[in-house]
């Protein structure tokens, strides 16, 4: 973890302005504390701000500061100051971290040695000073003593966004505080379960799930805190069910209803996790309810998903296929999914028939899922049906007429040793397509790309001349034929350079100088270096103020 943080990463996180301002606060960092993956400190600016830096973020670090700019979710100058302090002390971090761990062990030993009365006095002191701690302990106490009405009221209060929302929405800066409060709900429900009232805890969890689902659309949960709470609520519900052992049929009914009616729920309650609670009777009821729901709505995403997962869990591959087959995609993708399921189940002959059916039933092969074509070609190749691979690639190429389809046809025909026979027909299709389209400067023809890919440079040049090509293709052609047709290549380079000469920007300059180098090579081959000298001299005279261009030209000897 040491060494992750660098000044470059800090600058990327904070931006140039905050980074530069943070450099002026290095002497304001005090009270630095180090843990596993995090560092906290106070930074004294116009006020004293509490700063926390995490060294485990996707960009090397993330942080939080309670200054106004930091509360808006920004990586502020105070975080920069702490980060720079950490970088300066990196060699000492392992020792400081071990010292922090030692202090934690000493604290734990001291607490363990206190008597019950001393601990109570200490807790009461903290409760008086920390409102959030008091609220957490109050709700746990209500659950432990079985005051269910109080717990339900507190659940509603803890999940209410009102105290954190401006204009009905909890902004990013307040989302963490809301999430910390909402997380107390899980502890309260677990306390109710542990107190022997698990059935009540089940109802409370359902209430909390509903309230959290209602709240989530009004909270900026960019960091995923509410998702974590949702997962914890799902676990709390499962634990309560394991303790209460509700009627299997009733539980199965609720699980199916939740799975089908709450597909966007932040609480991912998975019916398959409840197998040990449902038992054989409950799982049978679950399957019957799922099948009935699917038969009423065979194309529903939630219904299909539940059915497929239940069927897979039960090893019923035929039911998996039936669910897919009831809602076939128009592009053949579902046929591919079925084929793969059957292959995985060790039924290759059926898998092949489904893949072939997917191709056969497509009215427009240009719209077919290319993964299905690739899959079927692979299966044909595995059983040495090379002629079928070529036939399918030829049919697909005829429908798409893309460079990729051409390359795939070529590879298949070469494997079947019939490319010389198939190539003229494939090129004829591309030539017909190219002649049908008005020549254009941008978006060249597939014919030229195919001939370039074949390294048939002369044919590609002829096709570009008669059917049109874009600048990318002309540049590739000029590079290919420069040694044998320097005058033609020179004409291309000069035409491509002309519009760049009047533009500015380092990317433009790099492209222009690349063309100038090629122009120089053409003049060398033609023996017309005097023309190059005149061209470059005129260019320098007209654009000498473009210092970066002049510098780049000098670097290339122009």
Strand content is under 5%
Low-confidence stretches: none
- Helical run tally: 29
**Whole-number mean pLDDT:** 88
How many DSSP E strands? 4
Oligomer: single chain
Question: Major β-sheet, in short?
Answer: 4 strands, antiparallel
The value of Rg in angstroms is 35 Å
Distance linking N and C termini: 49 Å
Helix content: 55-70%
Shape type? flat
Q: Structural class, judged by helices and strands?
A: mainly alpha
Please give the order of strands in the largest beta sheet: 1-2-3-4
Question: TL;DR?
Answer:
The chain is mostly helical and 558 residues long. It has 29 helices and four strands.
Overview of the structural elements:
This protein has 558 residues and is mostly helical. The chain has 29 helices and four strands. The chain has helices at 7-14, 16-22, 68-71, 77-88, 93-113, 116-129, 131-144, 148-158, 172-182, 184-194, 198-216, 225-244, 248-261, 275-296, 301-313, 317-325, 333-344, 348-360, 370-382, 386-400, 403-415, 419-436, 446-453, 457-467, 471-481, 486-501, 506-526, 529-543, 547-555, and strands spanning 29-34, 38-44, 48-54, 62-65. The chain has a four-stranded antiparallel β-sheet. α7 packs parallel to α10 (184-194). The radius of gyration is 35 Å and the shape is flat. The mean pLDDT is 88.
Summary keywords:
single chain; 558 residues; mainly alpha
Could you give the topology of this structure?
Blueprint: H1 7-14, H2 16-22, E1 29-34, E2 38-44, E3 48-54, E4 62-65, H3 68-71, H4 77-88, H5 93-113, H6 116-129, H7 131-144, H8 148-158, H9 172-182, H10 184-194, H11 198-216, H12 225-244, H13 248-261, H14 275-296, H15 301-313, H16 317-325, H17 333-344, H18 348-360, H19 370-382, H20 386-400, H21 403-415, H22 419-436, H23 446-453, H24 457-467, H25 471-481, H26 486-501, H27 506-526, H28 529-543, H29 547-555
Antiparallel strand pairs: 1-2, 2-3, 3-4
């Amino acid at each position: 973890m040491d060494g992750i943080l660098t000044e470059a990463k800090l600058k990327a996180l904070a931006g140039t302005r905050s980074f530069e301002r943070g450099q002026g606060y290095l002497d304001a960092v005090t009270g630095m504390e180090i843990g596993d993956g995090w560092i906290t400190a106070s930074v004294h600016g116009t006020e004293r701000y509490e700063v926390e830096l995490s060294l485990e973020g996707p960009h090397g670090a993330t942080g939080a500061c309670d200054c106004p700019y930091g509360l808006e979710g920004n990586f502020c100058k105070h975080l920069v100051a702490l980060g720079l302090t950490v970088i300066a002390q990196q060699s000492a971090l392992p020792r400081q971290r071990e010292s922090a761990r030692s202090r934690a062990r000493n604290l734990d030993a001291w607490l363990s040695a206190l008597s019950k009365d001393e601990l109570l006095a200490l807790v009461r002191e903290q409760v008086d000073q920390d409102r959030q701690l008091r609220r957490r302990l109050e709700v746990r106490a209500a659950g432990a003593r079985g005051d269910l009405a109080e717990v339900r009221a507190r659940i509603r209060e803890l999940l209410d966004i009102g105290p954190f929302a401006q204009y009905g929405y909890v902004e990013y800066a307040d989302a963490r505080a809301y999430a910390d409060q909402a997380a107390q709900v899980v502890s309260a429900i677990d306390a109710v379960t542990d107190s022997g009232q698990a059935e009540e805890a089940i109802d409370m969890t359902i209430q909390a799930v509903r309230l959290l689902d209602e709240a989530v659309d009004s909270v900026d949960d960019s960091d995923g805190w509410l998702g974590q709470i949702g997962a914890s609520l799902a676990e709390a519900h499962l634990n309560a069910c394991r303790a209460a052992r509700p009627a299997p049929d009733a539980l199965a009914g609720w699980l199916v209803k939740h799975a089908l009616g709450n597909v966007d729920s932040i609480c991912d309650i998975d019916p398959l996790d409840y197998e040990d609670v449902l038992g054989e009777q409950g799982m049978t009821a679950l399957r019957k309810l799922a099948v009935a729901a699917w038969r009423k709505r065979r194309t529903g995403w939630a219904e299909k998903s539940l059915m497929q997962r239940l069927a897979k869990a039960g090893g019923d591959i035929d039911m998996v296929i039936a669910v897919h087959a009831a809602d076939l995609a128009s592009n053949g993708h579902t046929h591919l999914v079925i084929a793969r399921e059957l292959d995985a189940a060790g039924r290759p002959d059926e898998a092949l028939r489904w893949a072939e059916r997917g191709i056969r039933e497509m009215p427009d092969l240009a719209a077919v899922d290319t993964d299905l074509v690739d899959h079927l070609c692979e299966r044909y190749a595995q059983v040495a049906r090379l002629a079928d691979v070529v036939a399918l690639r030829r049919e697909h190429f005829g429908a798409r007429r893309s460079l990729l389809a051409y390359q795939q046809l070529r590879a298949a025909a070469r494997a079947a040793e019939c490319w010389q026979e198939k190539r003229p027909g494939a090129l004829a299709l591309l030539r017909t397509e190219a002649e049908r389209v008005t020549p254009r400067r941008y978006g060249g023809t597939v014919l030229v790309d195919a001939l370039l890919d074949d390294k048939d440079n002369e044919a590609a040049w002829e096709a570009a001349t008669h059917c049109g090509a874009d600048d990318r293709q002309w540049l590739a052609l000029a590079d290919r034929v420069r040694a044998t047709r320097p005058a033609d290549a020179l004409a291309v380079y000069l035409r491509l350079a002309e519009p760049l000469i009047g533009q500015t920007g380092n990317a433009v300059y790099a492209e222009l100088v690349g063309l100038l180098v090629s122009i120089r090579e053409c003049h060398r081959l033609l023996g017309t270096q005097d023309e190059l000298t005149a061209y470059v001299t005129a260019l320098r005279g007209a654009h000498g103020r473009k210092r970066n261009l002049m510098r780049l030209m000098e670097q290339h000897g122009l």
